Amino acid sequence: MYRKLTATTIFNGYQYLPEDSVLLVDENGVIIDIVPTSEAGSDIEFFEGTLSPGFINCHCHLELSHLKGKVDKNIGLIEFLGKIMVERDASEIDISSAIATAENEMIQNGIVAVGDICNNINTIPQKTKQQLYYHNFIEVAGFPVEMANARFEKILEVYHQFKTHFPNTSIVPHAPYSVSTALLQKIVEYEENNLICIHNQETIEETILYQKKSGGFADFYSRFNISMDSFAPEGKTSLQDILPQFKINQPLILVHNVFTEEADVEYAQTFYGDLISNLYFCLCPNANLYISNRLPDVEMLFNNNCNFVIGTDSLASNDQLCIYNEINVLKKHFPFIPMENLLQWATINGAQALQIDNMYGSFEKGKTPGVLLLGEGVRRIL
Ligand SMILES: [Zn+2]
Q1: Structural domain of residue 282, as residue ranges?
Q2: Fewer CB within 10 A of the end CB, N or C, for the chain?
């Protein structure tokens, strides 16, 4: 038995299909085929709106869900990070119930897979229920070079706990302003790491740190007596400084990119060459507006053919975990971007980035991508 679904429009993960297309899906959500109405026979279900594969949320921090509404808006990234450090402790029960509520919110909002940042093991119990697919990015930070070994050993313990449940787990650096060259090298060289992400150019302070070894992060480090002695930037932007430390055959997701400039993109394109499809630019517009009321130069990135994916970031910097909402914010601020592209970023591109495009991201035979109905809001059909 299978259902025959059609709608005002069908988006298949790559493009809108001809008007008379019908999607055939079996009771387990497996895509059987897409056929013209003339071949579909009777019992076709018609929906007002757009049918789309389920959304991929490429950047989230599920473990921070209990911080919803705890941090003021527009306070800038450095103050935001300070608030998170102060507020992140809470009772185990508050943390786990917020995680369950947030996951449920993602499911309701049509998200089927998540790239999730983890600093601890708090999300494991919820994730083992397997209601959503997760790629777990086990995140490590440590700016002074002498911390590299100890920090890496410590995060390996978290990594191994995730890895026993989830094969799709990586160790990732937090951000250029918070990892030393030595720590980054350990992460990149770690043999099981097939996919890495990093918070990139989220604040102008990161650029100032790398270009002048001064600014808000330098002040922050001196206030907390964190040594910057081993940090010897060469006056480039952070992205141009750190990118050569990555391997071009190791897929990398750059998250935020608020202060990424055209020269950075050109540098990345030269560095990656034919393997540029391994570099993804993850947009989290609601989080950027929440933290600093500023958005990346999406027009420049778009004109340079960047490989986009979309993330919600956490409930500490977003009022909801909803990729459709992120799409609508991008549409509002960058109306020249066709809806077809935005949907692609949220579906097949995200699935390719998380290396799950064999199952998710498009209506193709044999996949189980989920089926959403998009209109004013999102409704799950399957
Ligand atoms: Zn983040």
Answers
A1: 55-360
A2: N
Tell me the pLDDT tens digit for each residue of 3-32: 999 999 999 999 999 999 999 999 999 999
- What is the domain count for the chain? 2
The full DSSP string for 57-117 is: EEEE-GGGGGGTTTS-SSS-HHHHHHHHHHH----HHHHHHHHHHHHHHHHHTTEEEEEEE
Q: Which two tokens stand for residue 236?
A: 């480039």
- What's the 42 CA to ligand 1 centre distance in angstroms? 47
Ligand 1 centroid from CA 199, angstroms: 6
Name the region of 380 (left: φ>0; alpha: ψ -120 to 50; beta: rest). beta
Whether residue 106 sits in one domain with residue 47: no
Q: In this structure, is residue 85 part of a structural domain? A: yes
Which is it for strands 31-36 and 21-26: parallel, antiparallel or unpaired? antiparallel
Same domain, yes or no, for 133 and 158? yes
CATH number, residue 304: 3.20.20.140
Mark whether 39 and 82 lie in a shared domain. no
Together in a domain, 199 and 106 = yes
User: pLDDT digit string (tens) for 40-74?
Assistant: 999 999 999 999 999 999 999 999 999 999 999 99
Token pair of 147, please?
A: 């911390």
Instruction: Clarify whether residues 261 and 349 are in a common domain.
Output: yes
Q: How far is the CA of 60 from the centre of ligand 1 (A)?
A: 6
Q: What is the 174 CA–ligand 1 centroid distance (Å)? A: 8
Question: How far, in Å, CA of 68 to CA of 316, rounded?
Answer: 5
pLDDT value at residue 1? 84
68 in the same domain as 32? no
Does pTM surpass 0.90? Answer: yes
State whether 12 and 85 are in the same domain.
no
Q: Is the domain of 159 the same as that of 231?
A: yes
Distance 78 CA to ligand 1 centre (A): 13
State pLDDT tens for residues 149-179. Answer: 999 999 999 999 999 999 999 999 999 999 9
